[in-house]
Amino acid sequence: MLYKRSSALFHEAQNYIPGGVNSPVRAFKSVGGTPVFMKKALGAYLYDEDGRSYVDYINSWGPMILGHTHPVVLEAVSQQLEKGFSFGTPTELETEIAKFIIERVPNVDKIRMVNSGTEACMSAIRLARGYTNRDKIIKFEGCYHGHSDSFLIKAGSGAATFGNPNSPGVTQGTAKDTLLARFNDLASIQELFHANQGEIAAVILEPIPGNMGCILPDEGFMQELRKICTENETLLIFDEVMTGFRLDFGGAQKALNIDADLVTYGKIIGGGFPVGAFGGRKEIMDYLAPMGPVYQAGTLSGNPIAMRAGLTTLTILDQDRDLYNRINTTTKILHEEISTILSNKGIAHSINRFGSMVSVFFGDKTIRNFDDAQQADHATFNQFFHHMLTEGIYLAPSGYETWFISDSIQNIEIEKTLEAVEKFKK
Ligand code: PMP
């Protein structure tokens, strides 16, 4: 049995942890089967408890852009650890990383560190509400901004995977202030602005969504959205938790040539440690406590180990300017080759890619929004997932997710992946 020890560990875990996992999508509930318990990760590979290895296309859901356990990050973190784990006081390192980021990303004059992407997005909308003195926000069906109450309304990622994008426990009072628009559908946005004039604090979106699978914005969509926000004095919040530092330092703002009012980050910014951040123009950010009236805080925010891992990762990305070209090229090759193989087999599919994010959908439909993503052939995806897993290729266990390509994926891993796709039978 391939996953003997994983099965035993999963069985045991369920006695003590709800569903045996600390984040739902890890449970393999939608694809079926037993989640694989990992015990080690190095470079392009994950190693499980049964002694098998996998080429990793999740990369901890995005953070491990360099691959796992990068020696330079490991050394920097080890040295930092010797100085203490957490001080609960300001440190020079926090200014260093803030300055480093601000000098390199667009439209961020000040930045605050938090502990997760959820916290970053939750804090950004509180700030937007406080700053504009308005209550309502617009989010898009299928976009995921973490599990804070305001966002669990038709959310993507795990919330979509489990077919329950509206969670019990989110009060009607909270839900009424989250208005829902459809991605790539300007009319749906205009209607909401028309019906709620002067009431919308912010529009938040993943500029290149990755949580309903990878989706690309239509030509002109984002420009028009920016215009509508400006006309209505509504803040445009780009959730770059996935795209930040993955598409290069400019993120989606630069790739799409759009200026956001607030930007949220996570994943890569912590180099694999628990970090999120949000930033924006000085006058908005200075509305935060202790300068301003909007409260936001965190016991471990700006934790020195996490800051050191993040700063070291970002420094490597900044210095190795060819890195983004390399991972984008790897992703393009995977996209094109996988598509050719599936076409030759007569398996209907469509693949969306942006930079080093890519999703393989099955079925005839082109995927432009959440409705499309829901209509993709998820049964075939589940079969594909298990086939690839058996072949030693680790994909996200849901058809609503994105693959994240790391710089550790080399030709040998690409070949291994394509050989596995070759063997797939629907
Ligand atoms: N925003 C986006 C775009 C995300 O992809 C995620 C997590 N996948 C989040 C926010 C929430 O981040 P976290 O899981 O760190 O709370």
Ligands = 4'-deoxy-4'-aminopyridoxal-5'-phosphate
Radius of gyration: 21 Å
- The mean pLDDT is 96
Tally of discrete structural domains: 2
CATH architecture of the largest domain: 3-Layer(aba) Sandwich
Cofactor: pyridoxal 5'-phosphate
Pfam families: Aminotran_3
Family: Belongs to the class-III pyridoxal-phosphate-dependent aminotransferase family. HemL subfamily.
Organism: Moheibacter stercoris
What does this protein look like?
This protein has 426 residues and is of the alpha/beta class. The chain has two domains: 4-69 and 321-422, Aspartate Aminotransferase, domain 1, CATH 3.90.1150.10; 71-319, Aspartate Aminotransferase, domain 2. The protein has 15 helices and 14 strands. The protein has a seven-stranded mixed beta sheet, with helices on both faces. Strand 8, helix 9 and strand 9 form a beta-alpha-beta unit. Helix 7 (186-195) runs parallel beside helix 8 (221-231) and helix 12 (323-344) packs parallel to helix 15 (411-422). 4'-deoxy-4'-aminopyridoxal-5'-phosphate (PMP) binds at residues 61, 116-118, 121, 144-146, 157, 206, 210-211, 239, 241-242, 266, 276. It comes from Moheibacter stercoris. GO terms for molecular function: glutamate-1-semialdehyde 2,1-aminomutase activity. Keywords: Cytoplasm, Isomerase, Porphyrin biosynthesis, Pyridoxal phosphate. Pathway: Porphyrin-containing compound metabolism; protoporphyrin-IX biosynthesis; 5-aminolevulinate from L-glutamyl-tRNA(Glu): step 2/2. Its main location: cytoplasm.
List keywords for this structure.
426 residues; Aspartate Aminotransferase, domain 2; 2 domains; 7-stranded mixed β-sheet; 15 helices; 37% helix; porphyrin biosynthesis; cytoplasm; isomerase
